[in-house]
Amino acid sequence: MANITDIITNLETPTWLDTGDNAWQLTAASFVALQSVPGLCVLYAGLVKKKWAINSMFMSFYAFAMVLICWVIWAYKIAFGEYMLPFAGRPGPVLTMDSTIGQSSLPSANVMQNYPQATMIYFQFVFAAITLVLVAGAYLARMNFTAWMIFVPLWLTFSYCVGAYSLWGGGFLFQLGVLDYSGGYVIHLSSGTAGFVGAWWIGPRLKADRENFQPNNIVLMMVGAGILWVGWNGFNGGDPYAASPDAGVAVLNTNIATAFSMLTWTAMDIIFYKKPSIIGAINGMITGLVVITPAAGFVAGWGAITMGFFSGTIPWLSMNIAGKRWRLFTHHVDDCLGITHTHMVAGLLGGFLTGIFATDTGVYAFGTTSGGGAIMGNGRQVWVQIVGALFVIGWNVVWTSLIMMFIKYVLRVPLRMSDEACLIGDDAVHGEEAYCFSDDNVSGLVPTLTTEMRANEKMTILHGRDLEEGNNGSSMNSPGKENGSGDGEIKID
Q: What crossing angle do the helices spanning 380-405 and 346-357 adopt, rounded to 10°?
């Protein structure tokens, strides 16, 4: 009987368990989960046209669920398991009681945590999930949902897990000394790169949607933005893997950089457009969150302010100058929500600035020994950060392209919706509408059969008939992309 009592005691309160660390880690993970569901779901739904609210939420919702199932069956061990390759662990399931109730460890990184493995598995899952949700932001309003269903597990396996193992799980970039506190490279640079590359493969939205993509609910968008900002406390505060002093520093720096970035972006809008914009302020908030992520617990408060200034200016220039004037973005890469600018540019910037502003105190408090960044006399760290960024960008360019080609040419699944579906939106793709009012006397709130018939008539004219006004039926196809580049404007009167 005594033996059974000892077993029960060891399972309930093992000697390695720190209940404070465990409680904070589960809380931080829940904060990050809320960033995706409902945070980014409702932010996306408010930012797109009304006809795409359901589809944008569903792409995020699906990714969250699919990533979890893949994560526990094979993906977690690729990212955080035992060594197999310099950039990947050995795949396998984490579904038995023995594999989840014991003490958490990252074997390739040779570190252990004072809570069960189940806590670490869930914490790392929510990071993987939000990365796919961020990628979706670049593909909205035209990606074939079936193609997205296939894309999610493939990109998680061959892209995200490789970055996570290389930088966090004990892989070659971890051994090299690349600093990425909470995912500036693993999450934001990778998702931004995949968004940019994938948007090229899928092709653009309809021309009418690109020219007029008025957000349908800015209040809803603001709710999502608020959840995202507050949820980031778990995003960065959870990555010391303990309720440590450095976790508090990370949370404070996260909010400092975000606030300064938002204010800087707003100032840029006032200077150049003469009006402050709430959508612009949200973009500035996001770039601030992204840029501080690789540096959160490494930098001092003045470093966070400096990084917030750069995140409110350089991505602003990228989005408002390059994004609106460069032919690459205006004709070839239709990044629907600007993920390239808010995550790829800001993630790259944050990783580079980490190499400059990281302090030795912050680095040591995190448990590493790189000695800080250039301000501490360690100029090598800047070059190490550049090497890490080049690997993440290069890997994602190649593997996002390979996955897109596999879906399109091997599986024969179109990457892009038909033009008819793009014109109608949620009702054509899901048979649902976001705002389901019961008052039949209020016209225009839900699609009618007449609306769909008129849309189909317009598509028939577009693909084969000359319009009386002299429209010569310009082609909607673009070489190297899915059918429908959006060159012909379509309107429902």
A: 160
Of 415, 355, 342, 426, the C-alpha closest to 387 is: 355
Pair 490, 208: CB distance under 8 Å: yes
The one-digit pLDDT tens for each residue of the chain (493 residues) are: 458 887 787 888 899 999 999 999 999 999 999 999 999 999 999 999 999 999 999 999 999 999 999 999 999 999 999 999 999 999 999 999 999 999 999 999 999 999 999 999 999 999 999 999 999 999 999 999 999 999 999 999 999 999 999 999 999 999 999 999 999 999 999 999 999 999 999 999 999 999 889 999 999 999 999 999 999 999 999 999 999 999 999 999 999 999 999 999 999 999 999 999 999 999 999 999 999 999 999 999 999 999 999 999 999 999 999 999 999 998 899 999 999 999 999 999 999 999 999 999 999 999 888 889 999 999 999 999 999 999 999 999 999 999 999 999 999 999 999 999 999 999 999 999 888 765 555 555 555 555 566 666 666 665 554 444 444 433 333 333 343 333 333 333 3
Q: Say if CB 59 and CB 136 are below 8 A apart.
A: yes
What distance in Å separates the CA atoms of residue 133 and residue 327, rounded to the nearest whole number? 27
Distance CA 198, CA 203 (A): 8
Q: Which of 240, 237, 233, 241 is nearest to 104 (CA)?
A: 241
Q: For 158-176, b where at least 16 C-beta lie within 10 A, e where not — what string?
A: bbbbbbbbbbbbbbebbee
Beta carbons of 343 and 189 less than 8 angstroms apart: yes
Q: Which domains does the chain have, with CATH numbers?
A: 25-410 (1.10.3430.10)
Q: How many residues does the chain have?
A: 493
